[in-house]
Amino acid sequence: MTTSLNKMSCIDNDKENVCKSKSYTYTPSTDVFVDARLRNPLSDLTTVVNNGMNNSDSKNRRNFRRNYLDSRKSKKSSSEVCDKDVVECVIKGISKVVYTVEFQKRGLPHAHICLFMHSDHKYPTVEHIDPLISAEIPNKNEDIELYTLVSDYMIHGPCGIHNIKCPCMIDKKCSKNFPKKFREHTSIDSSGFPLYRRRDSGYFVEKSGVDLDNRNVVPYNKTLLKRYQAHINVEWCNQASSIKYLFKYINKGPDRVTVSVVENDNEDDLDKPVDEIKQYYDCRYLSACEASWRILAYDVHYRYPSIIRLPFHLPNQQQVVYGADDDIDNVLNKPSVASSMFLGWMECNRLNEEAQSLTYVEFPTKFVWKQDNVVGHKERKDFPLVEFILQACYALGLLDDDMEYIEAIQEASHAGSGFYLRTLFATMLTSNSLSRPEFVWNKTWELLSDGILYKQRIILKAPDLFLNEDQIKNLTLLEIEKILIRNNSSLRNWSTMPYPDNDLISSSNNRLIIEELDYDRKTLQKDSKVLFNALNEEQKCVFNNIMEAVADNKGGVFFVYGYGGTGKTFLWKTLSSSLRSKGQIVLNVASSGIASLLLTGGRTAHSRFLLPLNLTEDSICYIKPNCEVAELIRKTSLIIWDEAPMVHKHGFEAFDRTLKDIFSSDASTNSNLPFGGKTIVFGGDFRQILPVVSGGTRQDIVNASLSSSYLWDSCKVLRLTKNMRLTLGSEVNDIQQTKVFAEWLLDLGEGKIGDINDERAILAPTNEVVDEINDQLMSLFPGDVEEYLSSDSICESEHLHEGVDQSLYSPDVLNGIKISGLPNHKLTLKVGVPVMLLRNIDQKNGLCNGTRLKIISLGNRVIEAEVISGSHIGNRTFIPRIALIPSDKKVPFKFQRRQFPISVSFAMTINKSQGQSLSRVGVNQCDESKNFDDLPCRVL
After folding, report:
1. pTM of the entire structure?
2. pLDDT for the residue 601
3. Residue 60 is inside which H or E element, if any?
4. Could you give the angle at the alpha carbon of 659 between the alpha carbons of 653 and 665, nearest 5°?
5. What is the pLDDT of residue 91?
6. Is CATH 3.40.50.300 the right assignment for the domain spanning 523-719?
7. Rounded Cα distance, 443 and 727, in Å
């Protein structure tokens, strides 16, 4: 029998090849999670460390370094401990066994073992635990052998005040929480964890001159300890976090080492480096024991019973397994090719009533798949068409539904920590994407609170701290509130969302001020001295002028005029560190998101001062005189505004009117002065990018710049002319190059340096040219394509005139609208593609409009990306779909587009590249760009 297949795969079953892949280290953990969730509870977690002092092989180890003998010995011990029949002799009721082998850089391999018990052991009792696990020193007179073994292998310490340099000591406290408390009886806490019996029996063990009693005993099993005479830590547990602990080491990946290549022509000559940049090798490091283990083809993972992955596929796209040497015609003629487990399940649903009550996942618990039986399948002809269309639209993201965001948080929780999930939830709030935020909160708060209890235990140094559900919710809301405040928002903006209790967050404290004062003054004092001594004479003159104005507290407006390389950013850092070291507040802002990342605590001016998007000559900032932002500005000593020439003069004038309004009620200030008497410093170069005036002439652009504003007459211009990048002395330059190269090598080893596309881009004058280049390069980029469609709709507040044909604003029309700063209706992405953020998401962590990222993974509801530009290179984040409303006046109505706020950025406009640090750029000088006056700023 032959059949037609659309997809075929050759599966490599070579064990030696499989164990080298990344999926080999990831897949077992997911299998165990599924098994623990569907079947029996996890009960015992055991760590086995072989005895390296065994007399039988000490001579071989010392004289011949026979590491493969160590590996054989470790394998034999692990196999015996994990053998279900062997363990059943010691621990009754075992249903499954899982272990992983960990290799450290010193000592022998050791195994982490999970034993799954039958369901009647899910809620352990003292009668279950005491016969299996002991945490006490035995009576020496009754059992001298056990006493000796416990003394040698199962005593922790001494640590604490007796041995402050012990490896377990962190912040002068044992990280393993020894010594424990005395307990007369074993008990179970509210979380299901046992508190083992540790009686004050008077027995002790002397180690390093310190008497250690039952409080320092590591829990053990008497039979296992006697049988294997090695460190075997046995714990009773019932949490899935134990599985994460089991696999955390192997999922970190192998250790890495960088090898340099040198040549030596003469044995007497010193080693000379050869091509320092190119001649290095990024190698995988394997210890001697791990190398021996893998040479002997031993498993790193073991589980009993095995887990079967249920396949699913489209019609005629089932997977076919065949050998590399098999004939294709013979493979296709096999009866089993036309069948699969998925098709067999469908057919059984048609014939068997009991099967119809089982899901696909539950099916193997009642039925067995026989490969030699070939059957057809039942198609669901009766499936409602409307329901199918709705589900398909929902899967494609074409429907507005908060369930999408619940699934996004659940999807992100598989790979991200609680901090990233809370940041993701805050992004959903600030983008106004949630129609019922309280509903999403109630469905996901347990995921969002991940790590809260652990963090509180660390802060309070209380390992036994217990928090109830309301307390954990409150602390989670407090962490979300902190993220929102950093983005000029608050949970109070959503009336249906709960707010943290006032007992934890005082309404009288301004967290914006606290954040700006949260700097290490001692470190800043040292940094400010070093930075000041490095200033040249021009920079010192500018520095002194500004510092005098701040000291006099009479206000002043300065403009530091200097082209690229004259040290403006260095001057900003010196001013900021000098004032912050004295406890004063400095607000660093910039006109572009990328430029703001170069400043310590930097934000975009629009984000910090709430400037309107559509500026007019009468505009004011959205800052109320009694709000937290206004109070922050009152306490500020200096405002630094970098890349000022990029902003329309109406933005500065709006900020001036706002500050005068804020300080008008303060009799101690002169609110009639520019910017209400506040000291403010602008910086930039008018030869670079000027404000964007849609359809404007050169005269219109010049008239829109800061130099054409009434505020310019109040500006004191301070010039920087000396290019610090080109005038460094040769000796200092050599030292600096050496230092930079050393830091580069360190960053390379730590994985902080991106790939070849991270610092490259193509610059073009218009968005149309950029889109054309991106489409061409995307088609050449390797990888699978993922398409994301937006959900577009007219804003509810937009009332169309009567008589207007509603079909003119159909979804097809809205989907076809392409506007600058708005993602397209259809986003085509691949893993590894560089993208650019189109909205400010979290500026504190470098996620602002213009930030370049690289796609790490493409989910159904979230996209994981890594920052490749700015000062937060290497940070990863999750990006959800958010509701975006364009501010472009070319569109005669307001509409909303729910889409991922990113665009492909192989190429970008020249304006978007302002502030970017790129090692190589290509400039597309097409006919549409007649004016290249802004090209020199790319070179600078």
Report:
1. 0.39
2. 84
3. helix 55-64
4. 140
5. 66
6. yes
7. 60
